[in-house]
Amino acid sequence: MSARLLAGPPLGAGPESYRSHAGRLGPLPDPANLIASLERSGLRGRGGAGYPVGAKWRTVAERAGGPAVVIANGSEGEPLSHKDRLLLSTRPHLALDGALLAAHVLRADRVLVVVAENLGSAPAVMATALAERPMPERARVRLIVGPARYVSGESSAIVNLVESGTATPSNRPPRPHQRGVGQAPTLVQNVETLAHVGLIARLGDGWFRSAGRSGAAGTLLTTLHAAGSGPAVRELEAGTPAGEALESVGGSLAQTRAVLLGGYFGTWIGAAEAWELPLDAAGLRDRGHSLGCGVVAALPIGSCGVCESAHVMRYLAGESSAQCGPCFYGLAALAGACERIAANQAEDGELERLRRWAREVRGRGACHHPDGASEFLLSALGLFQAEFASHRPHGRGGLG
Amino acid sequence: MSEQLELAIDRIRCDGSGLCAELLPERIRLDDWGYPIIEPGAIPESLLSHTRRAVAACPLLALRLRGVGED
């Protein structure tokens, strides 16, 4: 399959200019019937939640009242994900196209592009790309460089960042698409998702669906961590088996013990099972897993599931926005228990308590941070059961 | 039949005073850090007055009654 989002000049050549982009794909198309086309395309959000894009746009479009706000979300808080920074730093205009089309279709008077400060050249590239856009497009868009925190990409946190400069989540309801920036209905959409919109608007939903395997639609950007190598971003057909994806960057089943699918909010899956799983939001959800933002990370043979999981839990505990007790205290306690088990210093009943806590924190935060951490830990407790029950101390050194 | 009611909590407001669990142990217990764990589902008629008392007692107004399934 040829690349779609990443088609065009070689990626190593740096950001594509507006001139090259418009020469290759033409100017912004007329977005008539775009929502119906998005609904037919089967495109789902690529930020992690996997919500159908057409349905989300329709909800905002059918509101009563004044102008909406569009936020292009380039926060990429997931530490194992690198796809949004690659997309923004090489194809900055595709995501801008999608955001401008959304503004047109949803009658939004403002477009905000949020890019996290730690995404390499992406913030500077987006500033340059914006300055290249013709008027009046340029005047509608504002670039905001956001903090490099895990929860700051959550949609209510993005709204709060725009409004107050602090990227902490708030209670729902109202959800941002009901009442977001300045009380206006606000579409928060991941930048890769918007880039797909930029192509679907030009080439149609039939074209989008012409890629995809095992009933899945389109392509997706993935960040692949094969055992023993650094992260590689690849555009794959949706539905590509996870094992085939890892093999394309040098991974092999023989070297892989387990796969973390979906990133730190994802789940550990035994290597043999993971190898066959299709990388597709709907297909994975049906099997009880999550594609998340497209991270596929191999844990090498010989690596320790307890130590890796303790490391991730400590990270997630530190990324709580400290607003809700069960998340702030609960995740810290979960991380501490994992670390004691890893250090062979478990207290009486530690493992049973860890299991109980992991279930108790679920659904008890304003945002889904504790839920994601719980999901991750429960998958670790299942797959690495024997190691959690009896663990000798040693160092970690597995996931990139 | 009157509307079915359930408990909802503002997790950001709640600071774990624990009064709710003391007043309504039938539906609310505390986790190991003192924050309420609420039994999901509709409150039975027989518990409604106790539930209203627990809601009213929350010093941070973090607890409320709402129709089942409402946001």
Q: What's the structural blueprint in terms of helices and strands?
A:
The complex is a heterodimer of chains A (400) and B (71).
Chain A: H1 18-25, H2 34-41, H3 53-61, E1 68-74, H4 83-90, H5 92-105, E2 108-116, H6 122-132, H7 137-140, E3 141-146, H8 155-164, E4 186-190, H9 191-203, H10 205-209, E5 219-225, E6 231-237, H11 242-247, E7 256-261, E8 267-270, H12 271-276, H13 281-286, E9 295-300, H14 305-318, H15 325-342, H16 350-360, H17 369-383, H18 385-389
Parallel strand pairs in A: 1-2, 1-4, 2-3, 5-9
Antiparallel strand pairs in A: 5-6, 7-8, 7-9
Helix pairs in contact in A: 2-3, 4-5, 4-6, 5-9, 14-15, 14-17, 15-16
Chain B: E1 5-9, H1 19-23, E2 28-30, E3 36-38, H2 48-57, E4 63-67
Antiparallel strand pairs in B: 1-4, 2-3
Summarize the structure.
The complex is a heterodimer of chains A (400) and B (71). By secondary structure, chain A is α/β, with parallel strands linked by helices.
